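Entry for magnesium ion complex. Fields follow.
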Amino acid sequence: RNLKWQMECRSDIYRLNAQFLSIYESLIPPEEEKAKQKQLLTLLEKLVCKEWPEARLYLYGSCANSFGVSKSDIDVCLAIGDADINKSEVLLKLADILQSDNLQNVQALTRARVPIVKLMDPVTGISCDICINNLLAVVNTKLLRDYAGIDVRLRQLAFIVKHWAKSRGVNETYQGTLSSYAYVLMCIHFLQQRKPAILPCLQGMRATYSVTVDDKKCAFFDQVENLCDFGNRNRETIAQLVWGFFNYWAYGHDYTSSVISVRTGSVISKLEKDWTRRVGNDRHLICIEDPFETSHDLGRVVDKFSIKVLREEFERAADIMHFAPNPCVKLFEPY
Ligand code: ATP
Ligand code: MG
């Protein structure tokens, strides 16, 4: 179908590629934004060190996984060695310290699913969320960043998919659609599955990086500078991959029995994971395995209403890529 699409449906493939690339480029954060993020992190390190000299701060999420678009907030993890600390107490103390240093809108959200302190730095204009001891997020951030270093088409595809999801209102976990993290995993998995593959399976290779976090061993090959010609045998361009991605999620994926797994670089069965029925509020209507917390389905937030919304959006996007005269406009039209 891919070839047919190129030859017959889309004689404008060159123009389409150029348009997707220019959207991608317009979304890349400028260098001065990165510098401001560093500046804020340095300030936070200074303040935190006074109170907790042993603690460390790590960036995670889109500001560190290379899938962040311009003007994103930053996510910071405060790592305090002691596992027995009372997170709420630490967060309240932290909020106090930040407030007295003139940071603005400081708020401790101690009852959230992931408890955080929120703040805004008036000097750089950047907003920031700080969580405590969420080291798995720091490690999965590294995995995503390492994948991005292998083939630039991952970053291109993920930027387009995230931009589409935000424009179409399907990037809201509290409304039962998917997180940015889930969309990036879907992109990685999709590129692992291309023939020939564009991405390898880093967790299936000899481990050159290994840490144990919350009793979970996280190990993978991270010398990705040695893999930069991995995808060269596959010549697919961004427009073809965007088409293929939406076509897979609209018409190719088996929602009844399949789980996508970046950890194994393959599709595995719901049966094998025991994800065949609803348990409490966790449904398994679209299954995306977390690469490290393997009992964790990132699709569990999706309910029977939002799965319909999602699948209709995938179909809409696939059909636009197939037939619409101007996909680069139509795809991102606000819902
Ligand atoms: P955005 O550009 O939308 O802010 P983001 O990359 O920061 O994107 P989020 O979905 O906000 O994505 O998640 C931030 C980080 O938190 C992710 O990169 C990941 O490390 C971690 N994370 C988010 N959701 C989960 C989850 N369900 N399980 C494990 N880690 C998660
Ligand atoms: Mg974020």
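NOTE: Residues 60-62, 65, 67-68, 72, 75, 137, 140-141, 179-181, 290, 298 surround adenosine-5'-triphosphate (ligand 1) (CB under 6 Å).
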